[in-house]
Amino acid sequence: MKKYILLIVTATLAIQTFAQHDEQVTVEGKYRPKVNKVNKLTLEPETPQPFYELPSTEISLKDADRKFALNLEKIAPTAFAAKNDKLVIPTKNFLMAGIGTRLSPIFLYKHNSMLTKTLGLGVGIKHNSSWLNIKDYAPSGFMNNAFDINLTTSKFDGFQVDGGVYYKHDVYHYYGVNLAETPLTDEQIERYCPRQTYNTVGARIGLASTSTRTGEMSHSGSLDYQYTFDAFYSKEHFVGIDYGLGYTQNWWGNKSQPQKMGVDLSFQYDGCAPAGFFENRILFKINPFFEMKDEFYRLHLGFWLDGVSGEELDDSFFAIRPDLSGSLFVLDKKLEFYAGLKGGRKLMRFSEIIEENPFVNIISHDEMQVVRNEKLCFEGGVRTNIVEIIDLHLGVRYRHVGNDAFYGFGYNPGQLYDLFQYIQVPDIHNSYMLIYDETKTVSVLADLRIKLRNSLTADLGFAYNNCAPTVENYAWYRPTTEAKLKLTYDYDDELSFNASWLYQGGRYTKAPGENGAWDVQKMKNVFDLSIGADYRVNEQITAFALIDNLACQKYQLYYNYPVTGIQLFAGVKLRF
C-alpha cells in the first residue's frame, strides 16, 4: 500500500510540473515519472537521506519542476510535511492530457500493477512538444519523448530484484539570436540555428537485501548502462557498478538502536566522444563507514578513497576525502542540530551536462573536464518543529571545488569557424562551451513551511550564495540571491488553488562585444508569478488550469535564450 501511495504522489507531482511547462523541457533518464525543466526557478526540498548526505548548494537545471532549482532538504526528523496531508487513493493507471497556448500538447501515462504476488510491473510514457515556433528570437521549438518499463520481484529469498529499460528522444532548436538586432535569412537560420537531437537508451538492474535483523550481513548492488548520442557526432557509453556490504549488531547500548559497519564500492566507466574525439575514463570509489545512533543522536564516520584514470587526463591520481556527519536531537526530537564534512570526485558525464544545458556544444576533448573535484564540503544547521504548525530550517554550506564548471561563453558563427573547420560540426550560433575555475562558495539557506487548518499551506525559501572564482570575474549565470513563495489553498473537497512567486537575482554573463572582445553583462532579475487551480469532478477525474509567468517577464536563461511570456495550460487528470 505504501509503495502504491508513493508512486501516485510522484506521478501527481510530475503532472503539476508539466502544467507549469515553458518553452524548453528535458525528461529524466529513468521515468519515475518526473519532468526536468531548463526554464524556471524553484526551491524543491529533497527527501532526507539515511546518512544525511550533503545537499547541493548550487543551482541545477536538471532537478527542477520550474526553470531553475535550489535543493533544500526536507525538515528532519519531525517529517511534519507528511502530517495532515491528504492521502492519494492508490490506482493502477494515471493519465494526464492537456494543451498550452502554443498548441503545446502534454501527455503522461503511468501504469503500476502486480502481475503475480511477487512480480510488479511499471510502464511510463511521456510526450511534450511545441507545435508553434517561438518567434521572439529566431524561430524555435522543442519535442520531448520518454518511455520506461520496470519489473520488480521479491521472489528470491531475502532479496528484492528490480530492473528496467528506458528510452529518451529530445529535440531542441538552437535560436540564440535576436532577429531584430541581427537579421538572418531563412537559409542562415537553418545553418546557424540548427536542430539538436539527443537520444538516450539505458538499462538498470538492482538487488538489495530485505532482511533487517541484527547479526546478519546485508548486501545491495546495481548495474547501470546508458548510451547517449546527439546530432553532431558526440556520443557516450556509461557503465556503473555499485555494491554495498553492511553488518548490524548490538555491540553496546539500547538493543533497539544497533550499530552498523560496512563498505560501499563504486566503479564507473565512461567512454565519451565529444564531436568524434574518443576518451576512456574510469572512476572507482571505496567508502568504509561506521554508524551509531540513539534517541538523541546519529553519527556517521567514514572516508572516501577515490581513484581516476583516463587517456586524456593530465594525470591519474588517488585521493582521500572525509565522510563525516551527525545530528543531535533535543526537546523530544523537535529540535535537531546537524553538521557534516565531506568531499570527493565525480565524473562529469556528457549526458548530465546536456540535461542541464541543452545548448552546450562540446567540440573537442579539451573542452570537457572528466571529473569534478570537491576538495572540501561543510554543512551545518538547525531544523525545528517546536511550533506545531511551522517547520523551520536554517543552514550554512561551504564548498571548495578545484575545477568548477561554468557555461560562460556564447559563440557567434564567425568566432567558431576556425574551431569547426577541422571537424564535421555546424558552426552553431550562440552555443555554449564549458570553462573551469577553482571556486570557494559560501551559502546561507532558509526554508520555512506553515500549515493552517489543513487547507492553507505556505512554503517559503531563501538562499544567498557567495561564489568566489579564482580567475573569472564572476560565477557566470549563478545567482547571488534566490527566493520562493508557494501558496496552496483547498477551498473545499473539489476545488483547490495554488500560486508561486519566484525570484532570482545577481546573475552575470559574458556577452560578445566590439572587435571580438567580451563584455560583462548583468542579466535581468528573474521575477516569475504563476497561478493555478484544480477541480475534482469525481474520484477519477480532475480538471486543471494554470497561468504561467503572469507578469510576462521575458528574462533570459542564458545570453540570447529568453523564456516565453505569459502562457495558459489546461487539461485533465484521470485515475483508473
Describe it for me?
This protein has 576 residues and is mostly beta strands. The chain has four helices and 30 strands. It has helices at 2-19, 186-192, 350-356, 413-420; strands at 25-27, 35-37, 43-46, 70-73, 93-100, 105-114, 119-129, 142-153, 159-173, 195-209, 217-230, 235-249, 259-273, 279-293, 297-310, 317-330, 335-347, 371-384, 390-411, 431-452, 456-469, 481-490, 495-505, 508-512, 518-522, 526-536, 541-548, 556-558, 561-562, 567-575. The strands form five sheets. It has a 22-stranded antiparallel barrel. The protein has a two-stranded antiparallel sheet with strand order 1-2. Strands 3-4 form a two-stranded parallel sheet. A hairpin with a 7-residue loop joins β10 (195-209) and β11. It is globular. The chain starts with a helix and ends with a strand. 37% of the residues are buried.
**Main sheet, how many strands, which sense, barrel?**
22 strands, antiparallel, barrel
Strand content: over 45%
Q: Count the strands?
A: 30
Mean pLDDT metric: 76
Structural class: mainly beta
Number of H- or I-type helical stretches: 4
Q: Which regions have little confidence, pLDDT < 50, spanning 5+ residues?
A: 1-88, 412-424
Q: Which geometry do the CA atoms define?
A: globular
Distance between the termini: 16 Å
- Give the C-alpha Rg: 24 Å
| Percent helix | under 10%
